[in-house]
Amino acid sequence: MGAQETLKEIFDAADIIINGERPWDIQVHNNQTYARIIGQGTLGAGESYMDGWWDVEALDEFFTKLMGVNIEQKLRKNPVMLLTILTGALFNLQRRGIFQVAEKHYDIGNDLYEKMLDKRMTYTCGYWKNAQTLDEAQEAKLDLVCRKIGLQAGDKILDIGCGWGSFVNYAAEKYGASCVGITISKEQAEYANAQKGDLDVEIRLEDYLETEGQFDHIISLGMFEHVGKKNYKAYMKKVHALLKDDGLFLLHTIGSSVRSGGSGDPWVSKYIFPNSELPSLDRIATAANRLFIMEDLHNFGADYEKTLLAWEHNFVTHWDEIKENYDDRFYRMWRYYLQSFVATFRTRRNHLWQIVFSKKGVKGGYDSVR
Fold this sequence. Notes:
Elements: H1 3-13, E1 27-28, H2 33-50, E2 54-55, H3 59-67, H4 71-74, H5 100-106, H6 110-116, H7 134-148, E3 156-160, H8 166-175, E4 178-183, H9 186-195, E5 201-205, E6 215-221, H10 232-242, E7 243-256, H11 266-271, H12 281-288, E8 293-299, H13 302-317, H14 319-322, H15 328-346, E9 350-358
Parallel strand pairs: 3-4, 3-6, 4-5, 6-7
Antiparallel strand pairs: 1-2, 7-9, 8-9
Helix pairs in contact: 1-2, 2-15, 3-15, 7-8, 10-12, 13-15
């Protein structure tokens, strides 16, 4: 079976028509697209899209439909093509590449993130339970974290992977906490330091394994995806050493129902998140075993679809204001990233977990906060 026939079989199963008229139908502009995808898997699919070889009006629907069919079964005779669909274990981390994700992703330009994110520059899933806007959803998420750890004025908090400082600034401003935020991104550290004003906030350009001190509570929002399964136990041991005996640790992470294998997705690794890996719940639990008690597990992964769509809307709306610093290929790459990830949460392939841990168990039991 030729490359075009193989892809047509996949698309037929997903109700996608090549050069069809519906928003989710693929428009192929270069006939070499089929061979490129067959030969290079997801890397070929993503790069050929970036090169303008094919288009889809509604990329999120296109990926959603592809993820809704059992493509693995249909491609059992074509193992190379098993890599072409953005499902399953997308990422893989090696400790020696720890700073690559900062340089490749988080340091590409604060102007991009200022236009795409909420007013506090929060690059993690919002909490849309009672929210109507992205700003409201992100404020609600930050407050949810504070309430889940029972934050009190004067508490000393560590934020591992603090981003542009949204949580530490919120916790210091709204709750009177004393906050330390660590990041491996130079751009994020400079921005966060410029934004903290007179708040009791310290921002460090620092790897978490180098952090010292004792903290009343520790939180980590959207950083664990970059730790990697080989380092989960070391990560948990470090958090355990930094956390006071009666403190709480809140882990906020994207997760996958599928255990990651040894290889990551080539396109995502090359262009979006180098050396990263989505954890599975059992691997998190195994790493935390004998160090922590899991007090609470909250999955609101469906909210990531709304968050990503809001980011994509902001990115497209404000593109003209920042495009002089990027190019059209970047524009296509970034939309491909955001909308393909929408599909992973819409189809519940990926999740967003907030997990609250204690070291010795909360006396009398932990009251879940929603």
